[in-house]
## 1
Amino acid sequence: MAEDAIISFKNVSFSYLQEEDGSAPVEKLALDDVSFDIQRGSFVAIVGSNGSGKSTLAKHMNALLLPTSGSVIVEGIDTITASDEAPWELRKKIGMVFQNPDNQLVSSIVEDDVAFGPENIGMPPEEIRKRVDESLKMVDMYEHRRKGPHLLSGGQKQRVAIAGVIAMDPDCVVFDEPTAMLDPRGRREIMAIIRKLHDQGDTVILITHFMEEAAEADRIIVMDQGKIAADAAPAEIFSKEDLGVLNVPFAVKLSAALRKAGFDIPAGTVTEEKLAEFLCR
Amino acid sequence: MAVRDITLGQYFPGDSCIHRLDPRVKIVCALVYLVSLFVVRSFWVFGLCILFLAAVIILSGVPFRFISKGLKPVIFLIIITMLINVLFIRTGDPVLTIGKFYITNEGIYRALFMGLRLVLLIFGSSMLTLTTKPIELTDGMEKLLSPLSKIGLPAHELAMMMTIALRFIPTLLDETDKIMKAQTARGADFENGNLKEKAKALIPLLVPLFVSAFRIAGDLAMAMEARCYHGGKGRTRLHQMKLGRVDAVAAIVMVVYLGCVIASRYININIF
């Protein structure tokens, strides 16, 4: 385990019983001997097709799921011991944002919902007030604080969900496909917040289907059938054609084409932003 | 279905002193008022009850048509209650006789008395829900019931359940709308046919709705756990309920009112 690893997976396997119609339950292996470390303050994207185990992986990080074998060490604590005593101590440090914005908001008033997490960990009321206001301002939802979630757009709801997580002041936020149900605009807003969180020094783990989003990370872990298929910087991942990595982002394709045409595009140009910056120079 | 427009509960937004009352005080006051209606024995005391309610309504600034809306679903119940009283009370002097059948003055008196009591009950409880946000109601209820958690009443859990139910009413309405459209696109017919056919047509709506309600519940439970929820123990609240001067005034007014109503039982003013 590296010195400054915030989360560390050691030979983690996870299996569950799946019942199919009529037949005896079959044991399914969702994670198969997975090991990796996540550095404090890094931005890691986890990609992979449906059923590749990436969501299962994420749920191991805050003891929502416990490994069948192997161990997950978060902030130096094994999640198995943590879940016996006080899993909320661990979940305070590792926040999690889920896919469906509707199904993770608890209260019918935005600010009450953001306060839900801090209330659960027993923060004093004045402190909660401060954290709630700060978090809502950070996600730019402060003026909507008195509204009901059902009056907000999907992107706005997801921003409220993020505010609810950062109000607990976690060290690391795990995003489990946060943009899958949003329109392009909502997606851009969420990505901007994720970038902001990372710039603040929080560790960010982003599970996503969108390669454009993954390209913004420092590191991409590709999951395939419960195993890690690749684990490298975005530029390297996108250059490996044999991985069959889903969809290479447009910026990567364009850079490759430009390189072929004789332009000297530096390696590591994987986002449209960086490419545009380079081309405009 | 204009799902987006629905209001939660029947809260009428406002900033009157009635709106600003502490929810706990308001719930207790409403209960006292409802109980007081059963203490009343004669019509002239009902005058006091009406006066009191009228004062509350005027102070709250809620238009009367909003309050009378609450009467609609129970109007039948009230009419039937009154009819039964008129038709079956046999004491008193007959005022109307048709053949063997007769109506007594006591019957009419009782019917009016019950009818008035029911209407006041509805209005009184409507004033609570009209001037208190649903979320404040659940918070107030949690606080009021919390002493009972020592004898095993799950006060926090009940309040949490109500909060979540309120939160998910629009979500489930949205879901219903979606499923209805999907089934209509597949040829389901919700509009035509007799009662039996209509009831049958609801099955393809209700089954997916239940499935998705359970899925939502599962998702929500996981999200709540991820946000450190572990029951009411060690939980703090963002909104602290503080009793203010308005609450003290309300409590005093309520005590005086209740005193008057109770005293009226022992003072004999015989108008009727």
## 2
Amino acid sequence: MQLIYEKSREGCRAITFDALDVPEAPLPAGLLRAEAARLPELGEIEVVRHFTNLSRRNFGVDSHFYPLGSCTMKYNPKMAEAVAAEPGLARLHPHLSSSPAYWPACQGALQLVYETERLLAEIGGMKQVSIQPIAGAHGELAGTLLIAAYHRAKGRHRDTILIPDSAHGTNPASAAIAGFKVVQIPSAPDGTLDVGAFKAALNDSVAAIMLTCPNTHGLFEPGIREIAAAAHEHDTLLYYDGANLNAIIGQCRPGDLGFDVMHFNLHKTFATPHGMGGPGCGPVGVGPRLEPFLPGPRVVKDGDAYSLVTPEQSIGKMSCFFGNFMIAVRAYAYIRHLGDKGLKEVAQYAVLNANYIHARLKDAYTPAFGLRFMHECVFTAAPQAKKGVKALDIAKALLDRGYHAPTIYFPLTVKESIMIEPTETESKQTLDDFCDAMLEIAALADRNDNDLAHAPFTMPVGRLDEVKAARELNCAC
Amino acid sequence: MYPNDIKYTKDHEWIRDEGGVCVVGITAHAASQLGDVTYVELPEIGQDVKKGAAVASVESVKAASDIYSPVRGRIAEVNDDLLGKPELVNQSPYDQGWFFKLDDVDTADLRHLMDAAKYEAFVAEHAE
Amino acid sequence: MSWVPSTPAERDAMLAAIGVGSIDELFESIPADLRLKSWDVPEGRSEMSVRSLMAAIANRNSIGRVCFLGGGYYDHFIPAAVDALTSRSEFYTAYTPYQPECAQGTLQSIYEYQSAICRLTEMEFANASLYDGGTAVFEATTMAVRVTKRTRVVCHPSLNPTHRILLDTHARNLELDIVEGADPTDAACVIVQNPSFLGTVNDFTALAEKCHAAGALLVVSFYPLSLGLLKTPGEMGADIAVAEGQSLGIPLGFGGPYLGVMATRKEFVRKMPGRIAAQTEDHDGRRGFVLTLQAREQHIRREKAMSNICSNEALCALRALIYMSLLGKQGLRDAAVQCHSKAEYLKSKLTFAKILNDGPTFNEFAVRLRKPANEVVSRMLDKGFLAGLPLSSVGAGEANDLLIAVTEKRTREEIDEFVRALESASCS
């Protein structure tokens, strides 16, 4: 497909403005750009067609089953989009929160911040939540900055954070920005955290341990109580990475498991759209120990009136206002729709669906671990790879069959890994059709089918040359 | 399979004593594990480096790896050809694909490194 | 209330295939005493009920009849086609393009967005976007620290004071020496904003030269729409250009989601954080797009990554791209001329207030009123005006100082009415 710049024709216009109704004011020539920006020049219909046709070169949840492990690609309710279109929210100026003079004009928004934070705290078993962090990784950074502030306030130097080898890369990257040294804890052969290794690494320089639970192998940590007790003996804090909250929402709460701080991924658990990679929303939740350090300002409620205060010991600001507020609004609507019973069903069906896929595929693909999977199941395609069909080939063959591929080559701890997360919003029929496709591909792999190495065949492009891309670095035109 | 005139580290660097200066690169095994190399970052000339210091780095599409100095010394020269042709690391790991040269090296330090046979055994042992 | 499509019969068939008697059995790995006992989450409500609840809450807000409030976030016109196109679910329900063959729509749009940003700023490389303008300033800072291997960071007085707070919060444990001023000696970078937070337009070309002579980088935080007219970061010799991209077709939305814009020069691209799309081809020579230079990122380099950022604001970047495509070369200039001219018109009418800017302004300027700005703003709110930002509320001025912004949406009539109302609110 042509680039929009290749379609541009000099002098063509889409949007125009009314004639200027005041005198045109000059600016000193030295402050002006020499030439106008070379933006596309097209009629509106051409712009509309260009982007409509671009959209048709994408798989989305609305068009395709999207079982991307660790990403929770559930259905994004249209209701939440309608709610977010309310002019009283979509067009609300953020600086209305900056001056008390404007607070009467943003009571509804402050109420939404307050209630969203209260509900998330309840769901996570946390004392307080701040919706300031803009994405999951940003929530991790907020959490690790809070951990640093906690130990600093106690007047001690803690320079290490423990992170399992199965963790998302954001965990160590966030810890590093918060000033910590990262020590990696190995997984046991059964895919759970090696509790012995964890205990051996614990000492008074360890500020925290960051855990994903269930972990990225899809397994609930059976030693969680022991881990929490051992950590707290050293006043080492427990960080809960909310990436896999969909597996346990309404079944157990991170706070009750012993976690002191967590982040939520509203774009995963609470169904806000992934938007091709963002915007997300990554609220941070804290137990009583970290509460004094939360980013400010905080919304407080007095009767029906909402106002803002900044905690004395606050770490500062994670975002200029209330993070990705409009994403939090969608999540709030989602929570209010599902309510108590509906939220509990989320985890129930997410885990049921993943275990059903596991049951249907376990003879054709090798499960990476023997324990009960939660909301996602991890296989290794190592046996297929020995026959020349890699996880990558299986992924590409799925595209030809109308499915987005599962996550492959993550977690890094499993060779040729294929990580499938169906979510609760898929029907048995969809799961069956997907499993049939997986089984057909397994049979082809068994026969050393050569075609698989060249899939996909039905997409707008075939496999792309990433080496050429990286060496030539043509990143703009 | 691995050249006999050079020494090897557990991080898959090689070092060759060329009398006065030592040349450092990464092994064919390391290059093939990385895949097609797309970028190489080289150290500054004149810099004193300790044994085991991360002095250069190498990137492929799917991986990034630091290059550690096998011995103590001073960076005497770097292979600028790699900046324009990083593929030399894959094509000619022991010759045109070298990374940097060290001088001010105590050649006795090389004795502690692996020879070709030991390195080959090391690689075999760590393959799954 | 649920989006679970399974019937009880299907559920039972799945349980049977798994070989368990109930869903609860699947949760046996969670110790029984740690299972949820109770929580204070209300019962669910129908879609109809949630919609009216949310409408009622939204109605407790007032977006004002006429907006002169800015402070980095502006009430610009958003063409209907921006909303229509970004509402296509093939865009908004897709995720990160991990499988490029089924995400060419996403990847090509990122490439086109990066191109638009390069053309707008006259920089060589742009990334696929960061969270927002404030965090982009922090990311630019750590990038400059990586490039120069220095730790002194100089914040110019033109910088948005809230962005400065964000920088302090994020960099708290990085052992940086963050100071105010304009002296690049021994600095990793000097961070400037153009127009300044108070709206003053500058040319930082000389400062760029000074920075380069001292081995420091110049980071320019710019206002995208102003580049319809103003000298670009590229022309000034900036090394890193960052921006809050909200002005490019993104609704105000009480603070987010917005768009963190970042662009740089070729020599620094490998130190830049965030996703980057690149053009390449498939085995048949067909053009296609992929994410590139991923070895900089957290999923490969973990604690040694350029940043911990894992997402981008792709849907907001798409909005910006569509906005720039609809306005086009001439439209962006027209919008900028309208903003500037209308602001100048307003400025010329404010005879009862002292203009505080010490140079030309673009579409925003600071005034000192005869009464506390908070009080004036309150009175103006009653008349339907968002009159501006009281500068003391963000630590950028005295009690009587007000920051006033004008966009292309304001008419001469509205401006005249505003002047009368402001005079009566601040002088009587």
